[in-house]
Design brief:
Number of domains: 1
Oligomer: single chain
Number of helices: 2
Strand content: 35-45%
Shape: globular
Radius of gyration: 23 Å
CATH class: Mainly Beta
Order of helices and strands: HHEEEEEEEEEEE
CATH architecture: Sandwich
Number of strands: 11
Keywords: Signal
CATH topology: Immunoglobulin-like
Distance between the termini: 66 Å
C-alpha cells in the first residue's frame, strides 16, 4: 500500500507539474510575432518602401517616444521628422525643440531608431495628442510626407 501511495503522490505531482507548464503566451507578445519585435511593436506606416513605426501610442510625461525608420529601397533616402499637435481646429506644427533628420542607407530592412523626449526640458512638455510628420526625400528628388498614428501623452 505504501508503494501505491508513493506512486499516486508522484503521479499527482507529475500531473500538477505538467499543468503548471501550460503557459499561455501574452497577447502583446503574440501580436509582435517577430524576432525583431523587442520594444518597437506599435503601429507602422509604409510609403514607397520607407516605414516609420512607433514603439507605442500612449506615453506618460518623462518617457521617450521611440520610433524606428526602415528603408527598403535600393537607394539611400533622407528623412526629417517633426512634431504636430492636435488642436480643436485640427493638426498643426508643434513648436518642439525637436527636428530630427538622417540619411538612411539603401538595403533591405536597413533601419535606425530615434526618440523624442517628453516632460520638463523635453521636446514635448505638455499633455495632449501628437503625431510625427515624416518627410522622405528619395534619390530622384521626390518627397513623400507621411504621419505616424496619433500619440497620446498623459501626466
Amino acid at each position: 500500500m505504501k508503494t501505491f501511495g508513493k506512486v499516486l503522490l508522484a503521479g499527482t505531482l507529475a500531473l500538477g507539474g505538467l499543468t503548471a507548464m501550460n503557459v499561455e503566451t501574452p497577447k502583446a507578445q503574440a501580436d509582435g510575432a517577430s524576432e525583431f519585435c523587442r520594444y518597437i511593436c506599435g503601429p507602422k506606416e509604409t510609403l514607397n518602401n520607407f516605414t516609420i513605426q512607433l514603439s507605442n501610442t500612449e506615453y506618460k510625461m518623462g518617457q521617450n517616444i521611440i520610433l524606428r525608420a526602415t528603408n527598403d529601397n535600393a537607394y539611400d533616402v533622407h528623412y526629417q521628422a517633426s512634431v504636430e499637435k492636435q488642436y480643436d481646429t485640427g493638426w498643426d506644427y508643434y513648436d518642439a525643440d525637436f527636428r530630427y533628420g538622417s540619411l538612411l542607407p539603401a538595403g533591405t530592412n536597413v533601419y535606425e531608431d530615434f526618440d523624442a523626449e517628453t516632460g520638463n526640458g523635453g521636446a514635448i512638455s505638455e499633455p495632449g495628442t501628437y503625431r510625427m510628420k515624416i518627410e522622405v526625400t528619395h534619390a530622384n528628388g521626390h518627397v513623400d510626407t507621411m504621419y505616424t498614428a496619433p500619440i497620446t501623452l498623459v501626466n
